[in-house]
Every structure is written in C-alpha cells, then in structure tokens.
Amino acid sequence: MSAFELADSFARGGTLALLTLWSWLLLRDHRSALAARLAVAMNVAIAAHVLATIPSGGFPSPLDEALDMLSVTVAALFWMFTRAWFADEQRIGWLGWASIPAAMAMVLVVRLTWGTDSWLLPASSALLRLTMFTFAIAGLWVAWRDREGDLVEARRRLRWRLVLTVGLFVLLINLIEIMVDLGLAAPYWRSLAEFGVTLLTLLFCVAMFGIRQADLLGPPRRDTPAAPADAALPVDEPLAARLRDYMASERPWRDETLTITALAARLGEQEYRLRRLINRALGHRNFAQFLNAYRLTEVKAALADPAQREVPILTIALDAGFGSLGPFNRAFREAEGMTPSAFRAARLSGRLADSGID
Fold it and tell me: Is the confidence at residue 334, as pLDDT, over 70?
C-alpha cells in the first residue's frame, strides 16, 4: 500500500469515526428533535459517500449500488436539515421527503445505462448533478437567509461558517465528479476530495460540540409569546413589560418587514438585551417564530369570528403580517395540526374549543 493510499484510508476512517460519534451524541441527547434525526440521516449518507468512492472498491455489487444510491441523498438531507435546525421547522412536507427516492432513482438510471449509447445516461447524470447542486444551494440559502433573526447566538455565529465551508465543498465535490466522469481527471482526485470531507467533518463537529447542549437544538417550540420558558431564568421585568405593552398596543407584527433591529430601536433598547429576553425568557429560537405566535393568535381569532365568515383566509393572513400564503399555511399547520379552512369550519360550527394564546 502506497503512502497516498494509506493516508486516504486514514482520512476515510477518521471521517467515519467522527460521523459515528456525532450521530451517537445526537441520538443520545436529542433523538426526539427532527433536526437531530435529519442530521443522523445526513451523516449516514455522507458515510455512504465515503465508502462508495474508495478507489479500490471491492464491495459486492448490491452493496456498492446501495452505497451509491445513499450517497446522492446528502444534498437533499442537508437542505431538510437546515430547514429543521436553522429555520426551526417541525415538519418536512411530502415534497421534501420525495426528493430522497427521486435522487436514488436517478442513480439507478445512471447505473443501468452505464456503458451504453442511450441518451438516458448523459441526461440522467446531468440531472442528478444539477439536482444535488440545487438542493445544496437551497440549504445554504436557508442557513444564510434568516441569520439576523436567529436568537440563538451560538447558532447564529455558526451560520456563516457553514455557508462558506459547505458551499465551497459542494462546488468542489461536484466539479471533481464531473471531471472524473468526463475523463478530465484521474479517479484518485476523489480521494483528494475525501481529505476535504475529513477536514470539514472535523471542523463542523468541533463547532457543534462547542455549543451548549441547551442551545444546540433547544426545547420544543413555544407558542406563547409572553410566558417565561423557565421560571428560574432571570427576566428583565421592565423590558419584558415594555415589550408586552408595545406588542399589545401597536401590533407591530402586522409589518411583514419588521426586524429585531427595528423593534429594538422602537423600544429604545439595546438589541442584544431584546434578543436575550425573547430567547431565554420567552422561549423562542428565532424572531420570525416570536412574531408568528402573535400573528397566529390574530388569525385564529378572525377565523373564529362569525362576522368575518366571508373574509378570505388569505386576506386575514396578509392583514396579520404574513407575507404570502405558503409560509402562513406552513406556520398554521405546524401550530394547529390542521389547515386554516378546517380550523375555521370547526370553530364556527362549535366543534373546536378555544385554543388561543393566553
């Protein structure tokens, strides 16, 4: 075994060990969190990529095919992981989950047409690479998009590092795979990429292990905007009272462009104190979540009002501060477990008890 092959084996073994350790810690401490389960699934897919790209191969055909099919799901799982962790989404729709078998199907088509003159081979290969790249960019956009509204300071600091490192890595991996497939680069270039995988995994694990466990994935989302999340935490009572009074009198959540910086300015308060209050005392992990709690209270009251029976649901949602129907429907289903129209029908028929925010 050459020195390069030995280093390659060490790099792959180190990556697998780090992924195993991180996955075990996530399952041990956060198995009930969607973000943790998605992170473990992503780690399994990364491990499959590490094994599938071993230069010497040596795996039986069925196992080799399975590793290939698992490895291409990394980008889609990364996208879903960023939604669950950075955007604090509690559910992933069926379209999101459908991306997993879709990516696997494309790999199967590539393998079945490999070595033939069928047009399906270049078409499916190109579509597969484009799909993986698109999912990776979508995940990076989720991580970058709402960074200013992230109330978990350690997670907010990690966002730009994740965007930079993963973004460069995704571009590099796809470039290498395309060049090897086209014969423009030797297969051992894939091994060079694995050193990058090892380094990236190590850096990301170090960053994740450096975040307090309470901040890593956090407690379940709270819908109550004014109740302390933990009575033992010190609460800035004057600021909490001013925030509560301002929200009740001015209804600033109706402004869909409202930022935490703007709200702090309106209150004449330092932004870091407002962030700490909303996160540590009120139990919200991002600013949009905090505002949506108020918006949903207003929407539910309107939907239960017989006088507004004929008002379109979209009008009610937009008046409450939701920017469009899609985010409103997702937030409503996540909070109530039903569609807004079903909620309205149940409330107006008297079948659903009052569930407004106290």
Answer: yes
